[in-house]
Amino acid sequence: MTDFLATLYPWTKALHIISVIAWMAGIFYLPRLFVYHTEKTRPGTELDAVYQEMERKLLRAIMNPAMIGTWLFGLMLVFTPGMVDWGMVWPWTKAAAVLVMTWFHHWLGKRRKDFAAGRNTLTGRRYRMMNELPTLLMIVIVISVVVRF
Ligand code: HEM
User: Coiled-coil stretches, from where to where (predicted)?
Assistant: First the structure.
């Protein structure tokens, strides 16, 4: 099994990076949509419905499949022989940041449902602040996996 994963390695890594790019694109964009949804519309208007559809499609068609792909190919890399030395620090910083990123994804999913039900309570400023979190996590992840301290 591990020999098979070693053969697949370049493809697994390519698919991991492709999935990561799609996931990050969505995770950076969805909170921006929430900022404008909060500040430029009111529940029940035509524009509210447009934002709701954009948010639903972004989450269901891009972010959910991209997150699943990132995890699937990432775990295949973890089980590929020689990839991860758990005695080093970087796998732990990367794992911690990835878990927080996954939590953030689900937090965004819950906020999307709030908008869909017309009961968003957060301000545009709050969404702007939350938008910084995936950027910080992405920096930690890329430094972990590339610098390998
Ligand atoms: C979801 C769980 C994830 C797991 C289990 C995982 C696991 C891994 C592993 C084991 C490697 C090492 C492959 C190698 O040494 O060639 C890797 C590579 C990589 N990961 Fe992840 N990863 C995950 C999520 C992410 C996320 C969220 C990002 C970016 C925000 C990311 C970015 C990268 C990059 C850029 C590489 C390539 C590094 C290189 O070429 O040396 N990963 N991943």
Answer: none
51: CA distance to ligand 1 center in Å? 32
Number of helices and strands (H, E) in the chain?
A: 6, 0
Taking the centre of ligand 1 as the mean of its atom positions, its distance from the CA of residue 37, in whole angstroms, is 32
Q: Angle at CA 139, nearest 5°, toward 135 and 145?
A: 140
Tokens linked to 6 = 């070693």
**CB neighbourhood size of 112 (10 A):** 23
Which atom of ligand 1 has the smallest separation from the CA of 84?
A: 10
Cα 63 to Cα 19, 27, 40, 135, 144: the distances in Å are 9, 7, 24, 16, 23
pTM for the full model?
Answer: 0.95
ipTM for the predicted complex comes to 0.94
